[in-house]
Amino acid sequence: MLGLFKRHKPVVMPLASQSGIFLTVCEKIKPMTEVEFETVEQSLELAFEWLYQDPSRSPYLCGGHFSLPQTGVQPFHARLSQYLSQSVLPVILTNMHETVLRSLPAVSLTNRELGIVSINRGFELKQTLEPCRGSAFHFALSRYPDCRLFCLGIDPSRVKSKTFEYAEDQGCDWMTLEECQFRHRFQVKNQLATYLSHCDDLILDVDLESVMTDSGLHGDEHLEVQMVLRMIRQCLMSGKVRLVHLTGKKEKQIFSKQTKLILDEISTMLPTTHCAA
């Protein structure tokens, strides 16, 4: 699959009429091995040209690829701050939810309530002394007192009871995987609307693995794509979304129909998001 796209590298383009910027980030976080890192980085480097083989017809401008920490955090932060200052929507495809910690300094503003909507079967609230896989929102809430977290799609079978207790202690809101099924779409809409009304700015984080079916595991529950698209649409319509993170750790998640559907859905909302910024 990847070999077809190695001959042509995407060119980082200046801002034009598009109000969406597509960036890829590959970050090495414990306990990831060097082999795992190199494998997923190859996929992320080629993601833009796989998704949009004709850049002139892409709804997004290519914002480049960042390998952290090799290329340094400062260039990524500077590029992200530049785009945010120009009222465009950065859409970041990354291998780690912890990349949100690199983005928060550019998004978090004094005296403004920042919300994070996480569409994911897990909380990403692992309590550790330093960032590692699964700890993204533990550090986000610890470091940014004006930050609020709303998790959509939590699978109780995957989450320990002490994690639920910690989420409650941190003031997190959540809806379970069952509560996020299509038949409960109006309840989801109402709960999300209530949450959005208490936020000034928003980061949207989507776990691509949670949206995919895993054919290797019979009965493995996942979020319905139709519901995920509805959640994304509602968030973007609020005009409060400053940044979108799509997180996929494997090639099959990055190069998937679900990922393309999500990006296409976001692209249809870009003019609205741009006007609201």
CATH top level?
A: Alpha Beta
CATH architecture: 3-Layer(aba) Sandwich
Overall number of structural domains: 1
Helical residues, percent: 25-40%
Q: Which parts are unreliable, with pLDDT below 50 for 5 consecutive residues or more?
A: 1-16, 272-277
Structure class: alpha/beta
Output the helix-strand order: EHHEHEHEHEHEHEHHEHHH
Distance between the termini: 37 Å
CATH level 4 superfamily: Ureohydrolase domain
Q: Rounded to an integer, what's the Rg over CA atoms?
A: 18 Å
The main sheet orders its strands as 2-1-3-8-7-4-5-6
Shape: globular
How many individual β-strands?
A: 8
CATH topology: Arginase, Chain A
Approximate strand percentage: 15-25%
**What count of helical segments does DSSP give?**
12
Question: Which sheet architecture does the biggest sheet show?
Answer: 8 strands, parallel
Mean pLDDT: 88
Question: Can you tell me about this structure?
Answer:
The chain has helices spanning 34-45, 47-51, 73-85, 100-107, 136-143, 161-169, 185-197, 208-211, 225-237, 251-254, 257-268, 270-276, and strands at 20-27, 61-68, 89-94, 114-119, 147-154, 173-176, 201-207, 241-247. It has 277 residues and is α/β, with parallel strands linked by helices. It has one domain: Arginase, Chain A. It has an 8-stranded parallel sheet, sandwiched between helices. Helix 5 (136-143) links the parallel strand 4 (114-119) and strand 5 (147-154). Helix 3 (73-85) crosses helix 4, helix 7 (185-197) packs parallel to helix 9 (225-237) and helix 9 (225-237) packs parallel to helix 11 (257-268). The longest helix is centred in the N-terminal third of the chain and has 13 residues, at 73-85. Mean pLDDT is 88; it is low at 1-16 and 272-277.
